[in-house]
Every structure is written in structure tokens, then in C-alpha cells.
Amino acid sequence: MPNIKIFSGSSHQDLSQKIADRLGLELGKVVTKKFSNQETCVEIGESVRGEDVYIVQSGCGEINDNLMELLIMINACKIASASRVTAVIPCFPYARQDKKDKSRAPISAKLVANMLSVAGD
User: Fold this and answer.
1) A GO molecular function for this record (predicted)?
2) In order of start, what are the domains of the chain with their CATH numbers?
3) At what angle do helices 108-119 and 63-79 cross, to 10 degrees?
4) Which pLDDT tens digit goes with each residue over 59-105?
């Protein structure tokens, strides 16, 4: 399968490896670290120019950290001229907040979807 790269976020590296193995591909190189103030830093370790990139990251566990990591990874790939970036999200973060249950309540699932969309622009 030419022009496909699969990257794993830190939430489900074992699932990402199983997907890559099934497709006969190697996982892409990515380094994720935290600065002393707990900001997330992501470095894509290989060229993604013109490639179809798939990023596997779940919204479980450390939800906010995993979501931010995913947003940064998507943006990093787009800035590096990936042809297309697809987020594979087995557990969508903030899915419980998909509708208003009272006045002035946010629809957080829509906000997350919008952030994912904007990160890929």
C-alpha cells in the first residue's frame, strides 16, 4: 500500500501496532514529550509529504492530554504537507456531551469535532 503512513498517539500504541501489522506497514516515527509546565510536544520523525496519514489516538485515559496530543499531531502532519490526515479515534472524547441537557450548556462533542476539523486545515 503506497503513500500510507500510520502514526500512533500515546493512548493505544498496541492497537496501532496491530493495525500496522495487519496492513503490512511499519508505524511511523513520532516522539511525544512533556515540557516542565506539562505542555505537550510532538515531533513527527519522518517525511509525510504527499502521504495519506492515519493517526490512531483514543479519547480514553488522560482525555485532555490525549486530545491535545492528537490535535498537535494532526496539525504537524498538515504543516509537513501530508496529502490527507485521518484520525482514527476508537473512543471519541466528550461524546457524552453531544446535546444540550439544560439552557446555556455547551455541546462539547461538537466543539471537539470542530477543533479536530480546524487542526487539519
Assistant:
1) magnesium ion binding
2) 4-120 (3.40.50.2020)
3) 30
4) 888 899 999 999 999 999 999 999 999 999 998 888 877 777 788 87
Planar angle of CA 70, 82, 120, nearest 5 degrees:
45
pLDDT at 95: 84
Beta-ladder partners of 27: 6
Dist CA 107 CA 85 (whole Å): 25
Tell whether the model's pLDDT for residue 1 goes beyond 60.
Answer: no
* DSSP, res 100: -
Cβ atoms 75, 41 nearer than 8 A: no
